[in-house]
Amino acid sequence: MNEEVSEILETAMLKEVASAAMYLQAATVASEPAAAALLKELGEEEGQHLAVLKNLDPANIKETPVMKARIADLRLSDHLEAPSELPGAELTETLLFAIKRESESVEFYTGLMGLFSDENAKNLCQALAWQELAHKAKLELLYDSTVYAED
Known about the structure:
Layout: H1 3-29, H2 33-54, H3 76-79, H4 91-115, H5 119-147
Helix pairs in contact: 1-2, 1-5, 2-4, 4-5
């Protein structure tokens, strides 16, 4: 496996471990049951992503499918302030924090894509960016339905 792809996989796995640990720890001290449940779910999802990355066959990286469908981006992290910490955060604050984190991950992988010359490395970065964008979209839609729910 080429060195660039190995470095991306290692970095992605470290990011997933750190995110899972952060979300799961925050769930234990969340002030609201809904926020705790969301944080636990996010932590478990990050753990699942880690498992996918660990089991990824490097020989198939070049075959990483490029998503053709558009993913909705409400760009909430561009307009709403996210808390810098999770302890004590309410559900909406927890959602904003997670949205911001996912947005930063999208930017990270998109930026990495431009640094590599190897097409397989670029494909892997693109796939990881799309995955993070899908997480962000899910959280943004949940925020939108939570904050703007019809009574």
